[in-house]
Amino acid sequence: MNKQSGIHYLREHREAGSSRPVPAEVTRIRDTVVAGLGDLLQGAFDAVDDSLFELANNARSNNEQNRYFEAMREIRIKRKGVERHFQNAVAQNFANPPRSGSVFSDDSQATQPSADSLSLVGNDDLEEQVALNAMITKAKAHFQGPLHQLQTRFSVVYPEASEELPVNPMAPEHLCSAFTEAIQALEIQIRERLILLKQFDRYVVSNLGMLLDEANRILIQAGVIPNFRYHGKAGQQHKDAKDKAGKQTSSESAVSEPSQDSIQAGDSAVFDQIRQMLALQRANAGIPPRTSDPNIHVIGGAELIGLLSALPQQLAASHSDNLSAGEPVTVDLRQVVEQLLARNAAEDGKKPALNELDEDLINLVSMLFEFILDDYNLSAPIQVLISRLQIPILKVVIKDKSFFSKATHPARRLLNSLARAGIGWSDSDEKTRDKLYDKIHSIVQHILNEFDGDVSLFEKLSDEFDQYLARENRKASLVEQRTRESERGRIKSQKAQETVDRVLREKVARYHLPDSIHNILVNGWSRVMFLAYLRDDVEHRWLESVRVVDDLIWCLHPHLEDDERDQWVRVVPGLIKSLRAGLEEVSYNSSKLDEMMGELKHELTEAFRANAQAEAFEDMPDAYSGEPEQTPPTAIERQQELEEAAVAEYVAQIDNIEIGNWVEFNLVNGASFRCKLSAIIEEADCFVFVNRMGLKVIEKSRIELAHEMRRGRMTVLEQGALIDRALDAVVGNLRNRAG
Fold it and tell me: Where are the stretches annotated Disordered (predicted)?
């Protein structure tokens, strides 16, 4: 059955995927994920093409070669259709999310095999099923944290989901199911199908991390359980997260249509708490309520909005076309509004004054910007630009008070996006050659020039900026992916070379070996060991390559016992064969190889004959005898011990840094730069950091990072939503004043 090969089926598939409305934040995730998976899948198909060509090149017969070329042709012809089918199936998963937990979402696909069902499955199907299950299991283990966070958040967004029946359209089992469904159109045999699955695992499933992180970021930005973090124990945390989600869902449903002057009930607790503390301050200062003074004309609501509409947008910048000039400037909003009221005094002679609610809002906006413009986590260029938005944000807040209570408020969402996008800037000099900075600059200028009180402008700019960021993030993610792969390969190669050198050094140093044998091991066989180390996780050849070294050294010793000499006769032919085969595999110089093997045979023959010259290959004498002499530690060693003891507490903080976290390094010369943790290569104890474009900027070990943190030369930057952090800081400051 080739149900997906026709246009009719693709149209049906697309219509099925759009048969129900999808939440806005899920639509953004769907578009990002579908595009990202499409890019990754192209890499997988390119690798499949290379693999099949290599196999055809090395085929043992014409029939085998034709089989691989036919498979290449089949895949090339139907590749675009498979890619479209896969992307459509993934998109449909977002519209109608399958239940998480099963390996396949389709009844027509095999489920996890059991002992009772294995006999009913064909050999080819069983091989494919085992490969898929291994792929899914590995992905779930590797991305356990992001997957759990995403499932919890998706289960909040989709109303039909529950804790017992969670959903996650991006679960590995659903993506694998979509791919196996898409490749049903390919008329290829099981071996080629397994190659296709292997490359899908390598290029798509193994790189899901960046898409999972982006999906979590979008949902956090939308206010869906922003503070939920996974640390490996799913039970209680999942329950706590679901409790938070339940509260958030109920609050959002209760305020789906808020009035202009009302605060959302679910999240208004923070704003109410702030108002209570401000009211307490007024009472302590002896300020009576405004409504009780007949000589005061209280201004608020539509009247205040009318006055604010005449307020110039940009009081902080002298030139509208040079927003980035100078330092961040804090505007005294209270003074600006008082001057505005004084210029518009009532004819009845009453003193104009704000009502208490609007006064609290203005004070709160002032405190928020005090925090924002003093926030170390914001890069300096972004602080300068955001400081220009104080008057527009004041107008927004007076007109739409849900800014403080609604995490998805357009203006609040835009500010959070601007701050998050600019976290990677290290120096303001970058702004002269950075397209992203130009984009942010144009957004701020657009608001200053065109905002007339209509909050929809913020929504329009926020959506445009999110789309722009999604495109830029896809590009940066692909570069970062290549950077990670390159660094993993480089570090693994470096470790392989270090391991080979150490093993040979230890083994060769213990014996007096002829120069020719030393040359064979160090300049020839070391290459074989290097390649074996790199392939060891697949072919398990490392120990075999080391055993050849041990056998060679053993055979070079004179053996006087009959059983040892019999063993020598059995070992040597296989040893010579293994040495030649290994050196030929690494393309060792053929002319030198024959000469080298001749010298080897000569040395082995001489060793066999030297029955009476065992002393020629005796082990070197021990470097010392008896107990080693205890020497007191030097001053440098004592200082190193103190350093290691002091840095121990910082190692735990380094281990808490997660992939994707931004940090700032301060150099000795006073300069600084920001970068993102892209990869932790455990086998080499190496932390790799990249810039905003995904390019590597630095790598350090765990201990080196701990030393940097201890000396104050490395700071982990906070990446939570800017306004959320600002509100938390404001509440803390007011509590301190009240306390």
Answer: 1-23, 95-117, 233-263
- What CA–CA distance (Å, rounded) separates 324 from 317? 9
The dihedral formed by the CA atoms of 353, 356, 357 and 363, expressed in degrees to the nearest 10: 80
Q: Are strands 662-666 and 672-681 parallel, antiparallel or unpaired?
A: antiparallel
- pLDDT bin (cut points 50, 70, 90) of residue 254 is very low
For residue 732, give the H/E element and its range. helix 722-738
d(CA 357, CA 278): 10
Residue 335: exposure state from Cβ atoms within 10 A (0-12, 13-18, ≥19): exposed
Q: Regarding beta strands 662-666 and 714-716, do their DSSP bridges make them parallel or antiparallel, or are they unpaired? A: antiparallel
Q: How many CB atoms sit inside 10 A of residue 702's CB?
A: 18
pLDDT at 438: 83
Question: What's the CA gap between 105 and 159, in Å, rounded?
Answer: 19
Question: Domain holding 647: CATH number?
Answer: 2.30.30.140
How confident is the model over 622-634, as pLDDT tens digits? 443 444 455 666 6
Question: Which segments within 441-553 are labelled E, that is strand?
Answer: none
735 within a domain of the structure (yes/no): no
Residue-level pLDDT at 258: 36
Find the range with the poorest average confidence among 56-70, 180-194, 299-313, 554-568.
299-313
Cα–Cα distance for residue pair 339/321, rounded to 1 Å = 26
Q: Are residues 302 and 237 in the same domain?
A: no
Closest CA to 317 of 428, 436, 445, 426: 445
Q: Both 118 and 241 in a single domain?
A: yes
- Within 8 A by CB and 6+ apart from 115, the residues are none
Query: Whose CA is closest to 596, among 522, 699, 653?
Result: 522
420-459 pLDDT, tens digit each: 887 877 654 455 557 788 888 889 988 888 888 788 899 9
- Domain presence at residue 734: no
What DSSP line would sit under 156-175, residue for residue?
Answer: HHSTT--SSS-B-TT-HHHH
Q: How many domains does the chain have?
A: 4
- SS3 breakdown of the chain: % helix, strand, coil, rounded to 5? 65, 5, 30
% the chain with pLDDT above 70:
74
Helix axes 590-609, 542-556, angle to 10 degrees: 50
Dihedral angle computed from the Cα positions of residues 143, 145, 149 and 151, in that order, rounded to the nearest 10 degrees: 50
> What are the structure tokens assigned to 317, written together?
């910048």
Q: Over the stretch 25-68, which tens digit does the pLDDT of each residue have? A: 788 899 889 988 988 998 899 889 888 888 888 788 878 888 88
Residue 430 confidence (pLDDT): 52
Confidence of residue 83 (pLDDT cuts 50, 70, 90): very high
| Sequence-distant (≥ 6) Cβ neighbours of residue 142 within 8 angstroms | 206, 209
Q: Is residue 182 part of a domain?
A: yes
Same domain, 279 and 427: yes
Strand ranges, E, within 273-341: 296-299
Backbone torsions φ then ψ of 233, nearest 5 degrees: -115, 100
Closest CA to 553 of 514, 500, 593, 594: 514
129-153 pLDDT, tens digit each: 888 888 898 888 888 888 988 888 8
| 651 shares a domain with 570 | no
* Domain range enclosing 209: 7-248
Residue 28's CB is within 10 A of a number of other CB atoms, namely 21
Which residues lie closer than 8 Å to 646 by C-beta, 6 or more apart?
A: 710
Is residue 346 within 8 Å of residue 297, measured between CB atoms?
yes
**Residue range 204-244, pLDDT digits in tens:** 998 898 899 888 888 888 888 877 655 444 444 444 444 44
Q: What pLDDT shows up at residue 326?
A: 55
Token pair, residue 213, equals: 């992180």
Whether 217 is in a domain gets the answer yes
Non-local CB neighbours of 401 within 8 Å, separated by 6+ positions:
260, 261, 262, 263, 357, 361
Q: Is the pLDDT of residue 636 over 70?
A: no
> How many C-beta neighbours within 10 Å does residue 546 have?
18
| Residue 396 in tokens | 């927004």
Question: Tokens 């920001």 belong to which residue?
Answer: 674
